[in-house]
Amino acid sequence: MTCQRQPAIVLLSGGLDSATCLAIARATSFLPLYTMSFDYGQRHRHELAAAEKLAKLFGAVEHRVIKIDLRQFGRSALTADIAVPKDRDESQMTADIPITYVPARNTIFLSYALAWAEVLDVRDVFIGVNALDYSGYPDCRPEFIAAFEKMANLATKMTTATTVREPSGSAAGLPEPFKIHTPLINLKKSQIIRRGLDLGLDYSMTHSCYDPDTQSRACGHCDSCVLRKKGFIEAGVSDPTVYASAP
Known about the structure:
Elements: E1 6-11, H1 16-27, E2 30-39, H2 46-57, E3 62-67, H3 90-93, H4 105-120, E4 124-126, H5 142-155, H6 157-160, E5 179-181, H7 189-198, H8 223-235
Parallel strand pairs: 1-2, 1-4, 2-3, 4-5
Helix pairs in contact: 1-7, 7-8
């Protein structure tokens, strides 16, 4: 029996996790794919070039880069003149919400995705949040995703119409609900990497560093780099990342 395909939007930062989400979406029952990235004033804007290349490689029918300026709010090492923490162990990373947290970022990103989904009549959105290896971000947790999904299903025309009419004029019943897919949320970084490799993902195309140099080389010392390196070691595969200095 032929598997029925349906469209989906993938939030694609250009990092390891979002790229794996894109590979998973394409490998399952989701086509066509639409991808969305955000130029929000982040210091690691090199990730946007990676996202564009990944979108093309995986055959996204449309890739949008949404430009917003979260620098006007600050309070994050990714959008303000605040030093990015370096060489921390995991106990330090998860002791408190880290300074690399961008206020309300995933709430904003998912809201844009929801708006585009309603225009496209798409009911499925993928986001590469993870609550296992690095649970310091409150907007990467299952409770947040569940709450946003519930809100989304109360907030849009496409999910609140009482009936949907077929071309014949007969009622087709209640509308299809909006769904946020988080296939990585309970996976360790090493498991994410193995999953991506199984799907043929080339991780040298991804960019994860919070504080890259002017040549887009990863620093090797920020929290994101530390967790990425650890993931490749635990996965037992070579790390293709180009670092500014030897890891």
